[in-house]
Amino acid sequence: MARKSSTSSSSSNNRWRYILSSYYLKHTKRLVFLFISFVFLTFFVWDRQYLIREHEAEMTKLSQDLLRLQNQLQEFKSASGETMITNVLKDDPVDVQRRGKVKEAMLHAWTCYENYAWGQDELQTNNGVNSFGRLGATLIDSLDTLYIMGLDEQFQRARDLIILDGLGVAAIAGYAVFKELIFQPKEYKVYGKALERVQDDGQ
Question: Residue 98 and residue 108: Cα distance in Å, rounded?
Fold first, then answer.
């Protein structure tokens, strides 16, 4: 019996020795390991709490921004379009003048393009011959600029040239012969469908 009780008391003492500081002072490696583990655990917990707080703050800010934007959208919808725009965007006279000058420059450049290179992309300066094919990339690329600047007549003429004259369709059709030599049948089938759609839109 005495042996059994002494064994149980020694095992309980062995368990409690890990709590005593004197044990770690004798075993410095374990003390260092315990200290590093404590520091690491502290940083890990602190970092997670910091990230959670940061995430909550970001979500709160995003919710406030969303609410503010929804309110602004409702204000725009409820007010009459022109009045609301003029109330919100008060034009600076200098900005109005600059916009006018940019629009004049665009109109001048576009008028010259219509007079000398209408539907073309690149002209030789000495004889005025198109050296790039008749794809009309310049014309197509300028449509959004014309629309945004409010040059409606120029936009309509450019759109009509693309749609009615089938600008670029002839060049694409000629290009298809070359493409047939290097495309796989499946890829050419897809290209052919796209070409048919362009030709249908042009008619």
Answer: 15
DSSP 75-117: HHHHS-HHHHHHHH----HHHHHHHHHHHHHHHHHHHHHHHHH
Instruction: Say how many Å lie between the first and final Cα of the chain, rounded.
Output: 109
Q: Which residues pair with 130 in a beta bridge?
A: 123
List pLDDT tens digits, range 114-171.
888 887 777 777 777 776 666 677 887 888 888 888 888 998 888 887 766 655 555 4
Please give the Cα distance from 117 to 111 (Å, whole number).
Answer: 10
3-state secondary structure of 149: helix
Centroid of chain to Cα 115: 38
Q: Are 140 and 162 contacting, i.e. CB atoms less than 8 angstroms apart?
A: yes
Alpha-carbon gap, residue 133 to 128, rounded angstroms: 13
- Tokens found for residue 175: 């290009």
107 vs 139, higher pLDDT: 107
DSSP 32-57: HHHHHHHHHHHHHHHHHHHHHHHHHH
